[in-house]
From TrEMBL:
It comes from Bionectria ochroleuca (Gliocladium roseum). Transmembrane segments: none annotated. This is cyclin-dependent kinase. The lineage of its organism: Eukaryota, Fungi, Dikarya, Ascomycota, Pezizomycotina. Residues 19-30, 38-47, 56-69 have a biased composition (Basic and acidic residues). It catalyses: L-seryl-[protein] + ATP = O-phospho-L-seryl-[protein] + ADP + H(+); L-threonyl-[protein] + ATP = O-phospho-L-threonyl-[protein] + ADP + H(+).
Length: 279
């Protein structure tokens, strides 16, 4: 006979299933406890490693000898936002109406844009015959300044167009400018009576507003005269003809005084002299 008799009401299979479930739960609890302990150890190790790395970075490994920086003036930002240039369109998009005038740095005509019918002033840059040096500096300056300046009292430039024969520079570079009906010189020559004092004040206000904008952006016109001051039919004044204009900047520290002007600089210098009273 067996030493451990079973009850006749006992269910051997059910007892074995309960025992197996108890062992499984016990094993799961043991594994969870071990995983929790392992995670805590890893976090502590990471904390010690981070603390050790931070203390190493704070301490310089080797002393470096540095040259003292010179006392330079602070750099100035660009006067205008920098933009890109796109491919120029053909002058054939415009239809010439009539000639306006021929100035020192170019020939100007009235034209209309074929697509929109907008009336514009078409200025062809004047180049010396046989000059192989390309576009003159005066033309480049005028294009750059007109492209950068956005002011109600400065004539605006819509775009730069080129002729069909690009190999011929004397007939290939055109500035598409805002069309303004009159110039101040022509008005003064033809008007029967002088301007009223209120009109003079209004014109001077617009002129000084445009000049102040140029000077605030470090630009000197250097050729302000009545023929370069335009006036539309609504009485709005526009400064034009930037062929002699220049970008300027701060003088270099300890720079020697500049020498006497020559060439175009002497010409612009003569315009800047203080007016003399005539008896």
């Amino acid at each position: 006979m067996s030493s451990n008799p079973r009850s006749r009401w006992a269910n051997a299979q059910e007892d074995e299933a309960v025992e197996a479930e108890r062992k499984r739960q016990k094993e799961e609890r043991r594994q969870r406890k071990a995983a929790k302990a392992r995670k805590a150890e890893e976090e502590e190790e990471a904390r010690r490693r981070k603390h050790s790395l931070g203390s190493t970075e704070d301490r310089p490994t080797k002393r470096q000898r540095r040259t003292p920086e010179p006392d330079l003036p602070p750099a100035k930002p660009l006067r205008f936002e920098v933009e890109g240039w796109n491919k120029s369109r053909s002058v054939e998009h415009y239809d010439k109406l009539n000639d306006i005038e021929e100035g020192t740095y170019g020939w100007v005509a009235r034209a209309t844009e074929l697509a929109t019918g907008k009336v514009v002033a078409l200025k062809r840059l004047k180049l010396e015959a046989g000059d192989r040096s390309g576009l003159p500096v005066t033309g480049l300056r005028e294009i750059q300044i007109l492209r950068d300046c956005k002011h109600r009292n400065i004539v605006s430039m819509d775009e730069v167009v080129v002729g069909d024969n690009v190999s011929r520079l004397d007939n290939s570079i055109f500035l598409v400018l805002e069309f303004v009906e009159h110039d101040l010189k022509g008005i003064l020559d033809d008007m029967p009576e002088p301007f009223l004092s209120s009109e003079v004040k209004q014109l001077l206000l617009q002129l000084t507003s445009g000049v102040a904008y140029l000077h605030n952006h470090w630009i000197l016109h250097r050729d302000l005269k009545t023929s370069n001051i335009l006036l539309n039919n609504r009485g709005q004044l526009k400064i034009a003809d930037f062929g002699m204009a220049r970008y300027v900047g701060d003088p270099l520290p300890n720079s020697p005084p500049s020498s006497s002007p020559s060439g175009t600089e002497a010409q612009s210098f003569s315009w800047a002299q203080r007016p003399t009273a005539v008896p």
